[in-house]
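Sat 14:20. Reprocessing the chain from the morning session after the first attempt stalled halfway. Input below, unchanged.
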Amino acid sequence: MKFKGFSVGTFAVALCFTASLAYAGNIVIKGSTTVLPIAQKVAEAYMKQHPDVKISISGGGSGNGIKALIDGSTDIADSSRFIKSKEVKLAVEKGRYPVPFAVAYDCIVPVVHSSNSVTDITMAQLRDLYMGKIKNWKELDGPDRKIVVISRDTSSGTYEVWSKKVMKKERVFPGALLQASNGAIVQAVANNKNAIGYIGLGYMNDNVKPLMVDRIKGSLETTLNGTYPISRPLYMFTSGWPKGDTLKFINFVVHPQKGQKYVRDAGFVPLY
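Finished this time. Tokens:
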């Protein structure tokens, strides 16, 4: 299974054996709430090994992370989608040249309330549901209850991938409730027995129930072998080829025996 940006991230592994620390200081990371748990776990481990380096991390969505990279207010932009052509154009106009590093794989899983009897849904049904065409759970062999549709806001990389792979560019209907993060969707679905939402694999917990898609369960195995239909790579972007502490940190993230074990600990799929 090949994704854009993977070769760049892989190349960074080789550099970790030759690059030297240019200076010590602070690293700022902003962006995707999906990538946030990975960044937090890896940063915590990295700072323990490099106590002279301080890393600050915040979410806000992939779009906001890339905006921060373009504006020069972050060293690393976390993103759960690839950068758009118009974003590259804006960056280049400001003298910045975004470089992608694939740091993990993920799949987006539809989730419902734990009491919901529905276990499987098709891609076509998901699209119709988020377009507002399917309105009651009984249409999906579930309980006779009106469906509450929950989606991500448009600054989210998860929303962008959902729009491309599930919606096929059709618009989510205006009656959908919007949430700003994966965690907010988990909480909203867990508290509403009529709700459906979608989250990154690393946010799955016992408070919500995952649905299979086209009879395939979203998992590490089905993400890596490409059988799960809503899979994606997760990225960290830098402005130009990273240097100093930022380079050392990126190399740590993509290293098979270093940062990648924390990707698995965060509930996501390692590169290797």
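The CA atoms of residues 74 and 211 lie 36 Å apart.
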